Amino acid sequence: MSETQPTAAMADERIKQRSRLREAMIRPELGGIVGTIAVFTFFMLFAFDSGMFNSQGIMNWSQVSAQFMIIAVGACLLMIAGEFDLSVGSMIGFAGMMIAIFSVTLGWPVWMSILITFAICIALGAVNGFIVIRTGLPSFIVTLAFLFILRGFTIYFPQTIERKTIIGGIKDVAEGDWLAPVFGGKLFPGLFNWFGEIGIVDTFERGTRAGQPVVDGLPMLIVWALLLVVFGHVLLTKTRFGNWIYAAGGDAEAARNSGVPVARVKILMFMFTAFCATVFATCQVMEFGSAGADRGLLKEFEAIIAVVIGGALLTGGYGSVIGAALGALIFGVVQQGLFFAGVESSLFRVFLGVILLGAVILNTYIRRIITGEK
Amino acid sequence: MNPIIEMRDIQKHFGSVIALAGVSVDVFAGECHCLLGDNGAGKSTFIKTMSGVHKPTAGEILFEGQPMNFANPRDAMDAGIATVHQHLAMIPLMSVSRNFFMGNEPVRKTLGIPFFDHEQANDVTMEEMRKMGINLRGPDQAVGTLSGGERQTVAIARAVYFGAKILILDEPTSALGVRQTANVLATIDKVRKQGIGVVFITHNVRHAMAVGDRFTVLNRGKTLGTAKRGEIKHEELQDMMAGGQEMVQLEGSLGGTV
């Protein structure tokens, strides 16, 4: 070691110079960004004339993507906090069924049915979290149990009460309710009418709705998705609590030693995931006007896939809500896009598998650069 | 000058096992007090007693002249006793600045909502790390990209920034290479000069001799006395740690290289 070397230079010699571009590229969402560009390029080239990119087409894949986004935000924060929730899909079915039973079968006001369902589902999320924390069991197992328990009840209740597995008629009872439009309504109908007039949005040419725009407003589903993404992103990156989420998932023991209330953080994230699932269910029930016992099947995996495409680490402590939202967008665009492109629908899974693999390989590479993982 | 902390005749029994059989150590502001001992000598039990993890079976702890009874580690931390464990409270996936403020995040209110004040956190982190002689690429650099010695330094800088009066370092150099060890020892020296009492636990006499002001050797739960720098030689410390006689023989058979 030479004596003359000043300390500053000594420390600097190991810091490699990095270009601005490289700095900007190396981020957890890169996999999601590249995937989004790839997917849009692909469909622009192969399905541009299919109606995928006119107002109706855009609304179509936006709504599907928004559904994925709502559950992906919850799954993302929970995964960063170091836990999984495999009961999301069953929770969606369960929540929808609860709303239907309360409002249609029992005849309670819809707003009350929705609020009580939220309370029940968030409490179930807390139970999930509490069991995981108390027993120290992997959340994978605990929530897998709830996947079956909740799905079982979702089939059992309507069968015993109504002798069927689909309960309809929610649109009728929701008429005039003050809370139902928050999930099933549409925003800015005036604006979209105007869009129709000036020709941005197509209008119906014949029939009873002639002259009205084909897209008559921004569905609340999309509004919820955007609100949840913004909320999740701000919570994770801009608040103390966000730091605790990272810490709880990165190394629970180290976090505890530094005074982070790990148990509280994890339980709250289970509750938030349940909240997101219930938002999904409520929007769906209000849109379809019915609840079915098979609703939400496999949604937990779709949420997890979106989150992983978005750059999150399955073992926790690392990830991005924006990335998860892009993952959800990719998911929705591919699913609907293949339909527009006239591709055999079974190929959807092939396409999805390829994207998943590609994004995850890219993400792993990026993450190693950022975190110095071996 | 009075010591910041004075541990008088501390005993700690675990059932029938006597882990500490009357150990006395005091630490002054601005000194580096080395606690030496072989594996199983009771070093860990002793520092855990000092940091509030264990309650002594007998003996007295005086903190700034007042008798103290730490109920838990949080109490000791609040009083200003910080411990940097071998198992560092650092999360490799998180940035240095997020780690630095983990559990103590600064907040700034915007529209009544408390947000994590990243600007302040980043500035403080860069400044504190610069003081310790580490130039980070940026405050958002992940801890996982730092070397073991640098991670130790982040942990030490964090403890100092959050107002430690006594800094307990549990074998900070045991897993490090030569150069990284030198960096950590230099950090200890910087911390000491800020008037913080450092308790440096090690079983490496060479590392202890490099920065220590006083040396206390533990052997089988007992103190073999405290010596000041210059009053004791490297070989004597080595012998005391190992329990004398056997070590001399062992050293002879190894050609004096231990």
From TrEMBL, chain A:
Query: What Gene Ontology molecular function terms does this protein carry?
Result: transmembrane transporter activity
Keyword Membrane listed? The answer is yes
Q: Which residues cross the membrane?
A: 30-48, 60-81, 88-108, 114-133, 140-158, 178-196, 217-236, 267-289, 301-334, 346-366
InterPro entries in UniProt? ABC_transp_permease
Where is the protein situated, by its record's location annotation?
Cell membrane
Pfam families annotated for this entry?
BPD_transp_2 (PF02653)
Keywords recorded for this protein, A-Z: Cell inner membrane, Cell membrane, Membrane, Sugar transport, Transmembrane, Transmembrane helix, Transport
Per the record, what is one GO cellular component? Answer: plasma membrane
Q: How does it sit in the membrane?
A: Multi-pass membrane protein
- What protein does this entry describe? Xylose transport system permease protein XylH
From TrEMBL, chain B:
What does the record give under GO molecular function?
ATP binding; ATP hydrolysis activity
Tell me the SMART domains matching this sequence. Answer: AAA (SM00382)
Identify the SUPFAM superfamilies for this entry.
P-loop containing nucleoside triphosphate hydrolases (SSF52540)
Q: Which domain of life is it from?
A: Bacteria
Q: Which UniProt keywords apply?
A: ATP-binding, Nucleotide-binding
- Per UniProt, residues of the ABC transporter domain are 5-245
Q: Which PROSITE patterns match?
A: ABC_TRANSPORTER_2 (PS50893)
Q: Which Pfam families match?
A: ABC_tran
| InterPro entries xref list | AAA+_ATPase (IPR003593), ABC_carbohydrate_import_ATPase (IPR050107), ABC_transporter-like_ATP-bd (IPR003439), P-loop_NTPase (IPR027417)
Protein name as catalogued: ABC transporter ATP-binding protein
Q: Which organism is it from?
A: Actibacterium mucosum KCTC 23349
Organism ancestry: Bacteria, Pseudomonadati, Pseudomonadota, Alphaproteobacteria, Rhodobacterales
